[in-house]
Amino acid sequence: MAQIDIAGLTKRFDSGAAAVDDLDLTVQDGEFLSLLGPSGCGKTTTLRCVAGLERPTSGEIHFDGEPMVSRGVFVPPEKRNMGMVFQSYALWPHMTTFGNVAYPLRRARLDGTAVAARVAEMLDVVGLAEYGGRLPSKLSGGQQQRVALARALVNRPQVVLYDEPLSNLDSLLRSQMRREVRRLHDTLGSTSIYVTHDRTEAMALSDRIAVMQAGVVQQIGTPREIYTCPANRFVADFIGFDNLVAAEVVASDRDGALVRLGGDGPLVRCATTSVRPPGSIVELAARAGAFRLAPGVPQPGLSFRARVSTVTYLGEDLEIQVQAGEVALLARIRDADVRAATQGTVPVSGDQVDLSIRPEELVEIGA
Ligand SMILES: Nc1ncnc2c1ncn2[C@@H]1O[C@H](COP(=O)(O)OP(=O)(O)O)[C@@H](O)[C@H]1O
Ligand SMILES: [Mg+2]
């Protein structure tokens, strides 16, 4: 339907640093792209510039080569052929479901029969065929959000912009609506930009994710690329690597490297893609779930002994904070595995545990 090209986009408000700082981004025709990042990193401002609700300080935005924002050009929101869905459903409280969904069509001066047909079709798509006559106040939060989705999509817009649309829903409804949002995108074939601070939501929905911090895109890639190959420390931390550790290369070959974690921590193997000379310092990242119990005499490079600092029971898993030399690590291990290995006694603070980590789950940041 439309490719979105954003070039050199900068937005400064009166005070302080740029909310969006020289951002370049291309969203492919039909793509679902998420802007992911912590609160205040400039996601909403970027989206509002694409929508035409905000005038950029500088930069250009094109839809399919047509300038929306360019030298001397500023196309107003209602002329951009897009739909928007907000966190606050922003429904008209005095209009029924039907009236809310019909609103964009009536503004576009479609005749009554066509409006009725399109609204009925759309309500069917979002599963609200029975609710056309209800006022928003008589609908649940999830149903209201479906009305907002239907209203945004009823015009078959070339571009759909979402700003944290599911954040107000409880977690069960959220995962259900996530599938709904993706299904609607696939059915209607629009190009979507989706703003969220929730990495699970971004992973589940997106073809690609752009991770933002301080108005700048830190990394852009498929969910798997972002999840497994973080470009820098910020992305690694934000995407859920619990352990970020500097390490010194002891030996390396094409299969990976033998490294020493921290100044005097354990020797472990990591799978890096690049051969580094011994003595090089690398930044590594591992999720807590990458660790396994390795009972027995520790074998340098394969397993190591550590002292337990704290143990937290999470139900299925135990979260174990350990100290290995100067390095503090967080490990998450199946409760059943721990109890099988220890004849039922769960380690406590001060105990020793023997751990291993799979080399492919110890990744080099920015590799
Ligand atoms: N209308 C505004 N006036 C002044 N500053 C703003 C305005 N809107 C956003 N900002 C600032 O711009 C930065 C980015 O905000 P925003 O785009 O809303 O971030 P996000 O959506 O990622 O949470 C923040 O520092 C915010 O305080
Ligand atoms: Mg926001």
Describe this structure as you would to a colleague:
One of its GO terms (molecular function) is ATP binding. InterPro entries: AAA+_ATPase, ABC_transporter-like_ATP-bd, ABC_transporter-like_CS, ABC_transpr_MalK/UgpC-like, Mo/tungstate-bd_C_term_dom, P-loop_NTPase, Transp-assoc_OB_typ2. Residues 4-239 form the ABC transporter domain. The protein is α+β, with helices and mostly antiparallel strands. It has two domains: 4-237, P-loop containing nucleotide triphosphate hydrolases (Rossmann fold, 3-Layer(aba) Sandwich); 241-364, RNA polymerase II/Efflux pump adaptor protein, barrel-sandwich hybrid domain (OB fold (Dihydrolipoamide Acetyltransferase, E2P)). The protein is 25% helix and 35% strand. It contains nine helices and 21 strands. It has a six-stranded mixed β-sheet, with helices on both faces. Strands 2-1-4-5-6 form a five-stranded antiparallel β-sheet, covered by helices on one side. Strands 14-13-12-15-21 form a five-stranded antiparallel β-sheet. The longest helix is centred in the middle third of the chain and has 18 residues, at 171-188. It binds adenosine-5'-diphosphate and magnesium ion (MG). Adenosine-5'-diphosphate is lined by residues 13, 19, 37, 39-45.
